[in-house]
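Per your request, structure below.
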């Protein structure tokens, strides 16, 4: 039997009101591999599996299945990559 979840990529856009931060998360096989944080000042922080820490920010280290997400939180690869490429210099 073939595992259909192999190399499954999921993209999430989620606002955490208590921190007033908008997160974009790219998951590969249930684990975050890239993350964008946009704070209330419009400042961007980019994290990835090869650069998981920047200042006070840390790449999400829990499984996707541990995250409380709504149907509307799912986005496409194109939307994620547009933000990643446009603001990540």
């Amino acid at each position: 039997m073939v595992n259909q979840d192999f190399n499954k990529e999921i993209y999430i856009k989620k606002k955490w009101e208590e921190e007033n931060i908008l997160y974009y998360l790219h998951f590969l096989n249930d684990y975050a591999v890239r993350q964008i944080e946009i704070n209330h000042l419009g400042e961007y922080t980019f994290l990835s599996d090869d650069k998981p820490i920047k200042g006070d920010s840390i790449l999400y280290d829990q499984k996707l299945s541990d995250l409380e997400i709504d149907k509307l939180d799912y986005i496409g690869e194109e939307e994620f990559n547009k933000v990643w490429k446009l603001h990540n210099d």
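Residues 30 and 64 are 5 Å apart (CA to CA).

Regards,
D.
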